[in-house]
Amino acid sequence: MSKPIKLAILGLGTVGTGVVHLINDNLNELKRRSGRDIIITEVGTRRQRDDIDSSITQNADLMTVASSDNVDIVIELIGGTTLAKDVIMHAIKNGKHVVTANKALLAEHGNEIFALAEANGVHVAYEAAVAGGIPIIKVMREALAANRVDWLAGIINGTGNFIMTEMRDKGRPFDDVLAEAQALGYAEADPTFDVEGIDAAHKLALLASIAFGIPLQFDKVYCEGITGITLQDVNYAEELGYRIKHLGFAVRRTGEQDNAGQGNADEDNAGIELRVHPTLIPQDALLANVNGVKNAVLVNSHPLGQTLYCGDGAGAGATASAVMADVMDLVRVLGSNDDSNSANNSQYVPHLAFIPEQLSDTTILRAEQMTTGYYLRVHAFDHPGVLADITRILSDAGINIDAILQKPAHKLGQVPVIILTLPVVESQMNVAIEKIEQLESITDKVVRIRLDELS
Amino acid sequence: MSKPIKLAILGLGTVGTGVVHLINDNLNELKRRSGRDIIITEVGTRRQRDDIDSSITQNADLMTVASSDNVDIVIELIGGTTLAKDVIMHAIKNGKHVVTANKALLAEHGNEIFALAEANGVHVAYEAAVAGGIPIIKVMREALAANRVDWLAGIINGTGNFIMTEMRDKGRPFDDVLAEAQALGYAEADPTFDVEGIDAAHKLALLASIAFGIPLQFDKVYCEGITGITLQDVNYAEELGYRIKHLGFAVRRTGEQDNAGQGNADEDNAGIELRVHPTLIPQDALLANVNGVKNAVLVNSHPLGQTLYCGDGAGAGATASAVMADVMDLVRVLGSNDDSNSANNSQYVPHLAFIPEQLSDTTILRAEQMTTGYYLRVHAFDHPGVLADITRILSDAGINIDAILQKPAHKLGQVPVIILTLPVVESQMNVAIEKIEQLESITDKVVRIRLDELS
């Protein structure tokens, strides 16, 4: 048997401890698969831990661990975008391979980190950064390598999915479910990253880059959270055969595809849509039935068609599984270069799936240029002609109506009118909604939620 | 750019032609990802084709193509287990890598083929052999490489799933749907391989080997098809909250797990269950909602938990996607050994996920040793005490009843009694059923279908 592969784990929180446990639990499987001993030689931890095997060096100085001669692969699990970045850059400069679960760091600084790794002939692997234990990075970079990805849609934030699931299944309001999610440890004390969609946007930026071969562009992701979703809309959606999920979308638009409206669509909308928002999807879609904290990603590619990947998007076990899958890939490369830790870059799958010089500068569309269906909830006084006014405005704006649901009048004489539209460019919808809100009979702002048939 | 990678395609049927189209359609994507030109230099085809680019050599002699100096990777798409085997062995002996979609060949002769490849320092890739475009081979061998697989359950025959879906959705009988499936081209003129479960058993043998690290043992797969499923059972299952799907299961049993009965369970049932059969699963499981010709595989592993992979299990595009994903993996290895076509074996993922000397001879359980829940349909004359007799027999055999549904009497005075049981070793169930069938009030053979909660 060849010499052992030596790992350093930086950060012994939930996930770091999960990795230690995985290696203990599955030592035999790892050896049977890789033919190598895989051992933890060093851990970086602020406080000394007495539950760690005494053969492992503990060190509070992460930089020292990251460049230790006794380490082949550095596993970064401290999180954050400052120290984590310094440590990873230091490890790369010292010829170490890196495995990280840090989606925020990669979404914001990945272009720089990957370039440094390529210059140093090492690899930064990040399966655990997106959708936890679901191997979506491997699938997109390798299994779909012969495909042209047209679009993907993913439930990529477990907390958000838990909240949407509970609201629908139990008729509980948003605030109530959020409080429970915090009590259960699904949501942070400051839930902003989850409920405002920022965490999902980090992951979407990564998925979009490996789908289309574009640099990471987190700042261009349109990001809308679930804080505005009411039970009323959850229920109307169900009544119409849809379900509201918080989804991340990466969509490639060509000029032709986009004339979803009636001919007067904005022609300036060829490019890529990166967006994270609540979305009505058909109830019978598998994605609509991925519940609780589960994650799932649906990919539509040519010539494969639609494939779906579903599993736990967080947690110690799922994340450790993804971290160690990356390690096992690196072990294979290290095994074939036994004399040296560094290989030539062609042995690695390119960081962003496409070779660096082939990344393209395809336009990322602005929100107003994006094309989606819409759910509209309009509150109107129950006057004759109000429905005719609304539908005329939509029709004049080139917007096709797919379904209308007019509910009985409230006690105040107001009727909620629910309208589902076919796909339309947002700028057209903005104009129409402004006009609808100017109608005399309209009593409130129009509520709008995007809609996608996933077809 | 490095020298091009040269492919030979043997067989230009639906899938072979699909590969040609994929390479034409996605030439730019393939190059952007791999940094290499990937070209077809030769095709093996019985009759000359005039729709093939004139730069490609066409040859009816497959053996010549398989050993051509102008070929790096041989893609075998002729099917069958005789000529296909000869051609693959010949290619391997001539130092060619092989990509194949041939599940029957690998399930029956894979051990021999993989050993020859290992001896020759080449790789035989077979993503397309199981579940078409779903990258389940890559997922199991690589993405789950740090996990211990406990069990997997898969819808791995599209024709069977189409038939089961139509029976349930439209209340159509088996024969009627089969005839339509044949007309649509989903089922062969001789549908035996699909409806008797043989095709699924081929795929299950492959999945089980890479899940547990055992040699291929197709001959030990318990195999039951869908020809005996009636609309009556489909409907009773629905009434009880279940759905009947044709599934392949690979399950690792330890001694302790198996005392699902009440203590008198057979102790001789530690080992691996390989089985393909109709199965009741909960209606709300995602797997139960994978419909039509779609395939899906659910894997339960430690520490990851359950993950699900779903997509098209057949068809030119899906299969070509899988074939070319294998090619892209090989391109990466070839790229790092530019002077030679052969690499050292440690660069490849082992054929059966575990290194050959680590494959284990774990016992494969006989059918009577397998543990599952059961759906029983018993027809009895509506005499007082018959239900008491049946439940006493089950109880005496250590079988726990999970649900009972007694339907109103037929006009002949017979009542169908539907019983769902908790998991029990088959040998115990055999004894109980024999006793039930000896009861005077019982009018017919007991119908039994296995049941799994997927939990």
Textual characterization of the structure:
2 copies of one chain form a homodimer. Chain A has 455 residues and is an alpha/beta fold. Chain A folds into 3 domains: 172 residues, NAD(P)-binding Rossmann-like Domain (Rossmann fold); 174 residues, Dihydrodipicolinate Reductase, domain 2; 82 residues, 2-Layer Sandwich (Alpha-Beta Plaits). Helix content of chain A is 34%, strand content 24%. Chain A contains 14 helices and 16 strands.
Secondary structure topology:
Two copies of one chain form a homodimer.
Chain A: E1 5-10, H1 14-25, H2 27-34, E2 38-44, E3 57-59, H3 62-66, E4 73-76, H4 83-93, E5 97-100, H5 103-119, E6 124-125, H6 136-143, E7 148-155, H7 158-170, H8 174-183, H9 192-195, H10 198-212, E8 222-223, H11 231-239, E9 242-253, E10 271-282, E11 294-302, E12 305-312, H12 316-335, E13 371-381, H13 386-396, E14 401-406, E15 414-425, H14 426-438, E16 447-451
Parallel strand pairs in A: 1-2, 1-4, 2-3, 4-5, 5-6, 8-10, 10-16
Antiparallel strand pairs in A: 7-9, 7-11, 9-10, 11-12, 13-15, 13-16, 14-15
Helix pairs in contact in A: 1-12, 4-5, 5-10, 7-8, 13-14
Short description:
With 455 residues, chain A is α/β, with parallel strands linked by helices. Helix content of chain A is 34%, strand content 24%. Chains A and B meet through helix 1, helix 2, helix 6, strand 12 and helix 12 of A and helix 1, helix 2, helix 6, strand 12 and helix 12 of B.
